[in-house]
Amino acid sequence: MFEGIMRGIGDAIKNMRGKGRITEANIQDGLKQVRTALLEADVNFNVANEFMERVKTQVLGQQVLRSLDPSEQIINIIYQELVHLMKGDAEKPEAGFHFAKDRPTILMLCGLQGSGKTTTCGKLAMMLRDRFGKRPLMVAADLQRPAAIEQLKTLGEQLGVAVYTEGAAEPGGKGPNPVSVCQNAVAHARNTSHDVIILDTAGRLHIAEMPMDELKQIDRLVRPDDVFFVCDAMTGQDAVNSAKAFNDALDLNGVILTKLDGD
Q: pLDDT at position 208, please?
């Protein structure tokens, strides 16, 4: 994806630099190539159009056209807008978290099965510990998939991060349930001086199969400070629809994209 954007935008910039004189006409041709590069890289149609409008407004300003090296000005504008497109308004790493002051901060991870929630739980715990000096507690709240519990315990051992678990659900609804596990984990964290709790919740293969009522109940009773939707980057444009469905149910604070090293 990123290689495609780089190649397309690189070609457009070469063409603009090759002109003897920058005019509104050849700028428009160059910007069309940039827009095509974004769309070919599977950037959302509306996002690509908004991006191009912001660039066009700045590029077509008389100050740019009259500058000594307008092509360099245009490249800088495109670069700055790409940076803004990728990182949004978050200037600091901690801008993505709402840390509580007088109690453990609760982070809830949700998403479809196979999106990388459990692995992300471990990565997030490690980042919070190493970058922010927190004492995270990972909570195995995906009781439908016993392998998820074992995976989280293994990650905890490898990273040296504590894991709270009560075991998998049993047939007939016996045994622990995800809501009580999350509530008990919060009480456990208070008694063991953990200052961040990360809830690894259940997922399903398709959005229609997701246990949204269960997730809503956890959200209502445990009251997480942040709810993050974990999404496989290789999902493509359908990621927007999935994120919207989860946001309608839980009011998300952010999206974590996994597998960005894929195609």
A: 75
Nearest alpha carbon to residue 140 among 161, 175, 164, 112: 164
Rounded Cα distance between 138 and 196, Å, is 9
- Read off the amino acid at residue 159: L
pLDDT at 188: 96
259, 233 contact by CB (below 8 A): yes
Q: Tell which wins on pLDDT, 67 or 61.
A: 61
Distance of CA 249 to the CA centre of its chain: 17
Q: What is the pLDDT of residue 173?
A: 59
Q: Is 143 helix (H, G, I), strand (E, B) or coil?
A: coil
| Rounded Cα distance, 2 and 206, in Å | 27
Q: Are 108 and 263 in contact (CB under 8 A)?
A: no
Q: What is the mean pLDDT of the chain?
A: 84
**pTM for the model:** 0.76
C-alpha distances in angstroms, 31 versus 3, 15, 80? 18, 10, 15
| Predicted local distance difference test score (pLDDT) of residue 124 | 96
Between 138 and 4, whose confidence is greater?
138
Strand order in the sheet with 105-110: 162-164, 136-141, 196-201, 105-110, 226-232, 254-258
- Distance, CA of 111 to CA of 227 (rounded, Å): 11
Residue 172: band (very low, low, confident or very high) from pLDDT cuts 50, 70, 90: low
Contacts of 11 (CB under 8 A, 6+ apart): 33, 37
CA distance 60 to 133: 47
Apex 239 CA angle, 235 and 241, nearest 5: 140
